[in-house]
Automatic annotation (TrEMBL):
Pfam families assigned: HTH_31 (PF13560)
Keywords assigned: DNA-binding
Organism placement in taxonomy: Bacteria, Bacillati, Actinomycetota, Actinomycetes, Nakamurellales
Composition-biased stretches (Basic and acidic residues): 50-61
Name of the protein in question: Helix-turn-helix transcriptional regulator
Domain HTH cro/C1-type, residue spans: 21-87
Record GO terms (molecular function): DNA binding
Stretch list, region Disordered: 1-20, 33-69
Organism whose genome encodes this protein: Nakamurella sp. A5-74
Length: 94
């Protein structure tokens, strides 16, 4: 099971990623639907990433924090014509 620190870092990283995806999407004048189509994912996935959430629920019914697969992150970067590092930045630094 991940440590509390790892869970907190992942939540911050998901929020950062979501903000960056939204910023780049809007800068490219794309709707969530258009970005989803370009990336080969659903609009719901784009929404979840931008809001750093997912569709799972914990035992108390709270929605889980975002945790997109790496291939999804690469697909989004490709769809936005940017490098993955532009989406992730330095979120991996402690």
């Amino acid at each position: 099971m991940p440590t509390r620190r790892a869970v907190e870092q992942a939540a911050r990283a998901a929020e950062h990623l979501g903000n960056r995806v939204r910023e780049y999407r809007e800068a490219h004048g794309l709707t969530q639907e258009q970005l989803a189509e370009r990336a080969g994912i659903s609009r719901n996935q784009v929404q979840n990433i931008e809001h750093s959430r997912n569709n799972s629920r914990d035992a108390d019914g709270r929605q889980g924090s975002g945790n997109p697969r790496l291939d999804t992150v690469f697909a989004l970067a490709d769809a936005l014509n940017i490098e993955v590092s532009e989406l992730l930045g330095d979120v991996a630094r402690h």
